[in-house]
Each structure stands twice: as C-alpha cells, then as structure tokens.
Amino acid sequence: MALVGGKAGAWIGLIAIGPAGALILGPAIGSAALLGNSTLKGAVQKHLMTTWLQDLLRAAQDLHLSLLATLERRIIRIEERTRIFSGRKQRSELDAWIASRSQDDLIAALEDRYSLEAAHLKSESDAIGLLFAAKDIVPADAEVLGCVKVLEDLLAQKPGLRAVLINAGRPALDALRFRLKGN
After folding, report:
1. Sorting pLDDT into bands at 50, 70 and 90, what band is 158?
2. Under a CB-based contact definition with an 8 Å cutoff, are residues 67 and 144 in contact?
3. How far apart, in whole angstroms, are the C-alpha atoms of residue 17 and residue 11?
4. pLDDT of the residue at 95
5. I need a surface site. Which of 29, 67, 79, 116 has the fewest CB within 10 A?
6. Please, which residues have CB within 8 angstroms of residue 48's CB and are 6 or more apart in sequence?
7. How far is CA 118 from CA 113, 115, 166, in A?
8. Alpha carbons 16 and 28: distance in angstroms, whole number
C-alpha cells in the first residue's frame, strides 16, 4: 500500500505542483496509505471476517476473565503472606525483608489487575496484546494457559484476505454466471 500510495502521490504531486510536489506528496501519501492500512484491515475484519473476529474476541474475553480471577487469587495469597511476615518482622531481618518484598509483590499484582481491568478488547491487536500480557503476568497458571492455547489456535486459523474476498464475491460471481448462461 505504501508503494502504490507513494507512486500515486509522486505522480499527483508532479502533475499538480511540479518536481517539488512529487518529492513532497510521494512519501506523504505513501505514509498516509500505511496509516490507513490498520483502518482498512479493521473494516475488512469487521465486515468480511465477522465470525472469526467474534470467536477471537470471545476467546480473548475468556482469557481476560481468567487472568482477572487468577490475579485475585494471587492478591489474596500475597495479602496473607504480607500479614504473616509483617507480624514477625521484629524477629529477624529475613522476616522484615520478606514482609517488604511481599508488599512490593502486592503492589505489582494490584497494578497488573488495574491494567487488565482497563483493557478494552475490540480488535485482533487487542487480543494479541492480551496474549503478551498473559505471558508476562501469569506464565504458569493452568486455566490461563488453556485460554491462551484457545486464543493462539484461533489466531492461527485466521482466514486469509484473498480467501475472504473470494468468498465474499462468490454470490455476485454466481449471479453473473447465471445471467450469462440465461442469455
């Protein structure tokens, strides 16, 4: 898209402004084509890959809920550990260090939960971002790993743009063939 946009921009700039226009509009329109690519991709996915995108977002939502539940369990365990070692920190330096470390772990878990609660899953890129977050936040929870696997499988099953466009155009092509055979 950038190549075609760049060439079109160069020709338009050359004709409309002159050589300076070709130098300016070529890269500018090429860059604009790249920026519009994500919008075009989102529109194609929304309209032509509806079923796949809905399945993907449903799996991402399942992963999201699983991550939140796992983080809640982690927060409860860390709070218990913090309470236990905070009560003992006058006994030894090790207990004081573990209490301090537990408080740091609690803050990190609360920050992870907050960032997950703020996540809005609306696109393929949001689902991929959630996969990265899952591997950073909870790399070894069985429930989360199951949801990650489902989401990764759906991403691997993404239909190609060519196949989607062919399938979308098939009814029109069949109607055209029917008309041509009828005449």
Report:
1. confident
2. yes
3. 10
4. 84
5. 79
6. 164, 165, 168
7. 9, 5, 38
8. 15
Contact residues for 155 (Cβ-Cβ < 8 A; gap 6+)? 56, 124, 127, 128, 131
Please, are residues 69 and 143 in contact by the beta-carbon 8 Å criterion? Answer: yes
The structure tokens 């991402």 sit at 60
Closest by CA position to 157, among listed 47, 61, 50, 52? 52
Mean pLDDT for 107-117 is 93
* CB 121 within 8 Å of CB 130: yes
CA dihedral 11, 12, 16, 20 (to 10 degrees): -60
Q: Give 86's contacts (C-beta < 8 A, 6+ positions apart).
A: 99, 102
Q: Residue 84 has what pLDDT? A: 87
Task: Name the one residue in this structure whose structure tokens are 């699983």.
Answer: 66
- Please answer whether residues 9 and 29 qualify as being in contact, where contact means their C-beta atoms are separated by less than 8 angstroms: yes
Name the pTM for this structure.
Answer: 0.65
